[in-house]
Amino acid sequence: MNDLKEKALKLPQLPGVYIMKDDADEVLYIGKASRLKNRVSSYFNREHDGKTEAMTTKIEDFDAIVVESEFEALLLENSLIKECRPKYNVKLRDDKGYPVIRVDVRKEYPEFKIVSNPVDDGALYLGPFGGRTDTRRAIAEVSKALKLPTCGKNIKRIIGTTRPCLNYDMGNCLGFCQRADLADEYRNSIAAAIDIFQGKTGSLIKRLTNEMEEASNNLLYEQAAVLRDRIKAIKVLEQKQFFKEEPIEEHAQLYKEKMLKTQEWLRKALKLEKTPERIEAYDISNTGASDIVGSMTVFINGKPLKRDYRRFKIKSKRKQDDYGSMKEIVSRRIKRYLADDEKFSILPDLMLIDGGANHASAVRSILQDLNINVPVFGMVKDAKHRTRALISPDGEEIGLASNPAAYAFIGSIQEETHRFVVEYHRKLRSKTMLES
User: Fold this and answer.
1) CB-based burial, 273-303: b 16+ in 10 Å, e otherwise
2) What is the separation of C-alpha 397 from the centre of its chain, rounded to a whole number of angstroms?
3) Environment class of residue 49 by beta-carbon count within 10 Å: exposed (0-12), middle (13-18) or buried (19+)?
4) What angle do CA 58, 62, 64 make, to 5 degrees?
5) CATH number of the domain at 259-435, please?
6) Domain spans, the chain
7) How far apart are CA 22 and CA 358, in angstroms?
8) Span 35-70, pLDDT tens digits
9) Which of 56, 71, 248, 349 falls 20 to 30 Å from 234 in CA-CA distance?
């Protein structure tokens, strides 16, 4: 648990999503946070009650994904929950399952209702979403933006028989219960709300803009004004903190596009000849002169390729020597490549070394001796052990703070490589202690 707490404290104070896993690498829980460090570390620095405690005791590892905004964190959490269906996302909320929004578009005045599970009843179901609180807030915000009623009354039954309510007086509802001729406007607003919940705000705004321009050209200025206000409200909604439904395929495409931009930034910032699609990272762990080990992790287009991870037990050093140990593991890796070992058959586009310019220089000298041309950079950490920059063997430092995506990406590589080597080192140390 202390290791997880240390890992959590190294997370940035940025929005993102965290993924809790058990010892079988199965996803236990997926959550969002406006500040990842605070939220994730809270699981490990205090006692919890009931189901949260039961889940916390099963956590063996976690992943974190940094995003650019709280809205994007909400969107990503929803997508990942739909993909992974973690059991504790249900247990820690309300035991009613994942909430979905039900709307029966066959009715003259359809309403949005939160239910636990979709059924085959002809209605349209949106979701599932991560939690009922967020889903209720989403319905309220969308309804307010599109001036839909939230009173829950049967509009068809009470049209013209009741006085306008406070929402109407405040301009939050068009007063559909007052005028039967607004039925078409009501259905148009419901259709727009459905588009918003399905993440189709872009196409919706484009369609409404065309309708507004057409109304204006036909001198229907009142209708054009209504459409203008609706477009403005929808644009504001895009900044609100509630879930939108987004297909997993679309999220995967967004992730790919963001990673391509990050890779291109690294290519330019590090002055590389090609885009760093395959990145290998190396780290050393030891307790003095005993059980000195090294690790190699591999990332392909931003994602860890665990089947290519490798561990090394240092053979040539009798005492602590980080530079010598790093040179040994890189030398062994390259010699296996030169010997046509299929487990080391692909060279990386970029090597990242845990350490500074001297570590990177030591590795570069090994590559030059073996006539291998692979760019090498050290991962420089700050006082809190977070990777703040990359540094060349010649001492040229490239800061990462100006690019949050690159900062998060390189930080995740450093963290994963450190975790992997420490895990191996502890395993060997435990074995040594048992034998002694």
Assistant:
1) eeebbbbbbbbbbbeeeebbbbbbbbbebbe
2) 28
3) exposed
4) 150
5) 3.30.420.340
6) 2-90, 100-237, 259-435
7) 38
8) 898 889 988 877 776 778 888 888 999 988 887 766
9) 248
pLDDT band (50, 70, 90) for residue 84: confident
- Any idea which architecture 2-90 has in CATH? 3-Layer(aba) Sandwich (3.40)
Distance CA 368, CA 345 (A): 19
Q: Could you tell me the CA-to-CA distances from 283 to 300, 338, 370, 409 in Å, in that order?
A: 18, 22, 21, 17
Token pair of 240 as six digits = 């609100």
Helices (H), 67-182: 70-84, 87-91, 132-145, 155-158, 166-169
Is residue 364 over pLDDT 90? Answer: yes
Instruction: Give the separation between CA 23 and CA 25, rounded to whole angstroms.
Output: 5
**Cα 125 to chain centroid, rounded:** 25
CA Rg, the chain, in Å? Answer: 28
Joined tokens for residue 382? 């700050």
Q: Say which DSSP state 174 is in.
A: -
pLDDT at site 295: 92
Distance from C-alpha of 134 to C-alpha of 121, rounded to nearest angstrom: 25
The pTM for the full model equals: 0.48
* C-alpha atoms less than 13 angstroms from C-alpha of 203 in its C-beta half-sphere: 10
For 214, the token pair is 């057409």
Give CA angle at 230 (225, 234), nearest 5°: 150
More confident residue, 100 or 234: 100
